[in-house]
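Deliverable D5.2: sample structural annotation.
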Amino acid sequence: MTLSDIERLGAATVDATDALQMDEDTFRAFYDRTARGVWAYLSRMTGDRRLADDLLQETYYRFLRASGSYADDAHRRNYLFRIATNLVHDHRRRPQPERFEAVADHDPPAPDSTGDVAARTARRIDLARAMDRLKPRERDLLWLAYAQGSSHEEIASSLGLKTGSIKGLLFRARRRLAALLTDRGIMPGAEEKEHRGHD
C-alpha cells in the first residue's frame, strides 16, 4: 500500500462518516424498533432465513448510506422496507445455483396449552406453501398488510406502487390465497359456504 492509497482510504472514511444521517444511539433505537419486522419480511419473501440475515444487514447498510431526509419515523421505516423489497427483487433476478435445504428449516412450534399442536403446525405449513405459490408482489402485499400491519399508503411507499391501487391488489391477492387454501382443503370451498348458507 502506498502513501497515496492510505490518504485516499482516510478521505473515504471521512466521507463515509459524513454520509451517516443518524448518530449511534438514534440508529440503535431505530434498529431495535424495526429489525425484527424487516427480518421477518425478508425471511418470508425469500423463504431462506440465512439469506434474510444477509439481506437485513445489507438493508441497514444501504439505509445508513442513503442521503435522504425523512419527515418522521414512519417515513424512515417505509424507506427501510423499500430498500428491503428492492434487495429481494434484485436477489430474485440473479441466477440462482441449485440449493439443498435442511429439512428442519423452521423453528418448532411452541407448546400449545389447548393441545392440538399437530393441527396448528399443519395449518402453518399449508399456509406457507400457499404463500410460496403466490406471485412475489402478492406475497409482499399480504405480508406488509397483515403481518406488519402497514397502511395502504405505507405499502404503496414500500413497494413503489400507487396508493389507489393497493386496495384492489390486496383484494386479488387475498382471493388468490383463499383459492390456493381451498384447493388444499384448508378453507371451505364456495360450494360448501353456499350450502351452509341454505341450512
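Annotation notes: Residues 24-46 form the longest helix (23 residues). Residues 192 and 198 are 10 Å apart (CA to CA).
The annotation will be released with the project's public dataset once the embargo ends.
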